[in-house]
Structure formats: C-alpha cells, structure tokens
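Why do we care about 3D structure at all? Because function follows from shape, and shape follows, mostly, from sequence. That is the central idea of this module. The next example makes it concrete: a single protein chain, its amino acid sequence, and then its structure expressed as tokens.
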Amino acid sequence: MLSILSKHNLILKKGTIVDSTLIAAPSSTKNADRKRDPEAHSVKKGNQWYFGYKAHIGVDKDIGLVHHVKATAANVHDTEAANDLIHGDEDEIYGDSGYLNVEHVFGVVKRLFRFRRTQYKGLRKQQAKFNMIFALANLYLADKKNLPA
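And the structure:
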C-alpha cells in the first residue's frame, strides 16, 4: 500500500500514527471441523473477552491515510507489531492515545463498511481482507478530502 500512496505523493513521511482494533471471529465450534479458528485468540479488553484478530495500522499523521496494515491474533500486543507499521523516514511516531485522528479510519471500516466481524479463518485470509478493507477506506477518505488521484 505504501508504494502506491508514495507514487501519488499522498504520503508525507513526516509522522506515523500506530493503532489497532479488534475484529471478532466466530467463537463457535458448530462447524464441520468442530473447532475454533486455531490462529485466532482471546483477549480481555476492560472487563470483556473478545475472540478474533487485531488489525494493526500505520497511518500518515498529516494526510490520515493508512500506509501499512498487519493482521495478528487478538492477543498480540500493539508494540509487537509496531516495527512493521512504520516506513522508517518518520520524524515522529504516535501511539493510539497520542493522536486521536486515526480513530476516523476505524470509524469508516467499522461503521460505514460494517466490518466488525470476520467470517474467514486463518491469518493469511485476514491479512488479505484487512488489505482490501483499509485500501477501500483510503479511497473513501481520499475522495472525501478531495486528494489528488
């Protein structure tokens, strides 16, 4: 995703915001294999347990477009994916609480596109789905902000 955004001068490389969100997976064992997705895991957030995956993203702090996406099991800590979400030329890197504008990308994905729960099994399929959904979110946001194509 980074190369396409850079080619069209949509990434300024001054700063990156790193954040993640939980995407639920079916926890039921009522399937043909009678098993849960072996690559998805449970994690406790607040007082509630979630089963599924995490979408970790790197967002350009000035433009607000996603340039890196990484799928992991839900129990992977945000800091473990951070190195895969930066391009290395940043002057500044923000965590999720350091810069709140990144929540807008998740709003598009979860509210507008209604992608809160996945039906796919396996990390490779999650990565492919996350790449597609965040690329679509970039198109939506770029169009909304009237960024050059």
